[in-house]
Structures are given as structure tokens and as C-alpha cells.
Specification:
With 256 residues, this protein is an all-alpha fold. The protein contains 10 helices and no strands.
């Protein structure tokens, strides 16, 4: 059920500036954590590598704070700022972390087993082989928080709103199929966004591209489903849990 205004007749309009500023503040540690994971680039100061992610974080925080409530998409943080809703329960948080963790473990093991099919001469490692404490910190803070604010809160909300207004204007809220298309769009863009970094590290082959797109699109769809059916924080928790699951699987395999 979307957040309602005091009349209970139409979706609540979140306080856009306050909501956006809080979400941006939550995302700042994630942007800074990229300094732990980004490679050195000759002639480019490391701080300059943070400019594009920071701009996207700010833009998508504002876009989502405008579009999401109009589509009935929620954030617990935004609900609190608007004076509605309650606190997230510990059980809900653990559930979303567990969903993401299981997805990370399964995805990591499957990626390791299928590596001979997609790796070839590529220098791109399997998920578990790429694990490190720095990658985990960046994955949890940047992937879990910043990417979800960008891709689900910003991109998915805007896509759902645009589809709804173009194709189902008479409906009081976006129909289910508009949410599905928006979720798919955000998952595909999320997956495609991983290709440039891979291209810098290795030549892209068709099997490698299919692996990158398939893996990230599947997990992106799970995060989008949690956002649509619950709230932004559920998607964030699952995304954080995914990176923890990848690290756990890598440590388990290294012990064997």
C-alpha cells in the first residue's frame, strides 16, 4: 500500500529536498569507499574518479524523491520524514540480508563453476576470486546503498512513472505491468553499467558479456522486486547481503 496523505485519497508527496539530502548523506560513505576499490589511473587524481558517482547519486536521489511516491514506491526513511509509517523491524532487516546473502553464496558458487565457459583468456576473475576486504566494504557501502538509490530509487521510479503516464494515465496508480517493465529496465541498466569497468580490465568476449549481463540482471531483478513489493531499504539490505554472501562463499571455498 503506498503512503497516503492525511485525506487517505492519494499518494503522499515526500518532502523532496529533505528526503534527497538524507539519502545523499547515507550514500556519501559509499562513494568514498570507492577509493578502496578503484584502480590507479595514470594522470587522473583518485578524488576525480568520485565525481561521476557523486553526481549520479545526487541526481537520482532527487529524481526518486519526486517520482517514487507518485508511483506508490516507498522508502522507510522517506516515510519517517513525511511523518508516516513506523520503524523497520529487526526481523525484516535480517530477512532481506538473508535473501541477499543466499543469493550471493549461490551466485558466487555458480559463477566459479561456470568460469571455464566464460573466462577464456579474460583477466576478469570469478566473483569469489575477486573477493577482498576492500571489495567487501565497497560492495556493501557503494553497491548496497549508492547503487540502490541510483538504480531502484531513481531509475526504476522514473521509468515506472513515465510508462504509467504514457500508457495508463487513467489508472490512479501504475498498473502491475508498468512496475514489471520498470523493474526490468532498471535491472538491465544495472547490468549494462558493469560492462565499462570490465572493458577497462579485459577484452570483452560474447561469453563474458553474457555472464556479466545475466548475473547482474538476475540480482537486479531480485532487488527491484523487493523495492516494488516492500521498500527501498529492503533492496538495500538484500544488496548488502549479496556482497556478504559472496565473501562468505569465497572464504568457505578457500578453507576446503
Amino acid at each position: 500500500m503506498p503512503p497516503q496523505d492525511d485525506l487517505g485519497t492519494r499518494p503522499l508527496r515526500y518532502p523532496i529536498v529533505r528526503t534527497s539530502c538524507v539519502l545523499i548523506g547515507l550514500g556519501v560513505p559509499g562513494v568514498l569507499s570507492l577509493l578502496l576499490a578503484l584502480p590507479e589511473m595514470a594522470g587522473v587524481p583518485r578524488w576525480a574518479l568520485l565525481i561521476n558517482p557523486a553526481i549520479l547519486l545526487v541526481a537520482m536521489a532527487f529524481i526518486g524523491s519526486w517520482a517514487a511516491p507518485r508511483c506508490g514506491l516507498r522508502s522507510l526513511v522517506a516515510d519517517r520524514l513525511a511523518g508516516v509509517g513506523g520503524r523497520a523491524s529487526g526481523r525484516d532487516l535480517l530477512a532481506t540480508l538473508a535473501i541477499g546473502g543466499l543469493l550471493g553464496v549461490f551466485g558466487s558458487l555458480l559463477d566459479q563453476m561456470t568460469a571455464p565457459l566464460w573466462q577464456g583468456s579474460s583477466t576478469i576473475p570469478a566473483l569469489g576470486s575477486a573477493w577482498s576486504p576492500a571489495a567487501l566494504i565497497s560492495g556493501v557501502l557503494y553497491g548496497g546503498v549508492v547503487e540502490e538509490i541510483m538504480m531502484r530509487w531513481g531509475v526504476m521510479s522514473l521509468a515506472v512513472w513515465a510508462i504509467w503516464r504514457l500508457a495508463a494515465r487513467s489508472s490512479p496508480l501504475p498498473p502491475r505491468w508498468a512496475l514489471v517493465i520498470g523493474a526490468i529496465a532498471s535491472a538491465v541498466l544495472f547490468a549494462a553499467g558493469h560492462l565499462p569497468a570490465a572493458a577497462l580490465a579485459s577484452d570483452l568476449t560474447l561469453p563474458l558479456v553474457l555472464r556479466i549481463l545475466g548475473l547482474n540482471a538476475v540480482v537486479g531483478l531480485v532487488f527491484a522486486f523487493l523495492f516494488a513489493s516492500r521498500n527501498l531499504e529492503s533492496a538495500i539490505g538484500a544488496h548488502m547481503g549479496f556482497h556478504v554472501g559472496v565473501a562468505a562463499a569465497a572464504l568457505f571455498v578457500s578453507i576446503l
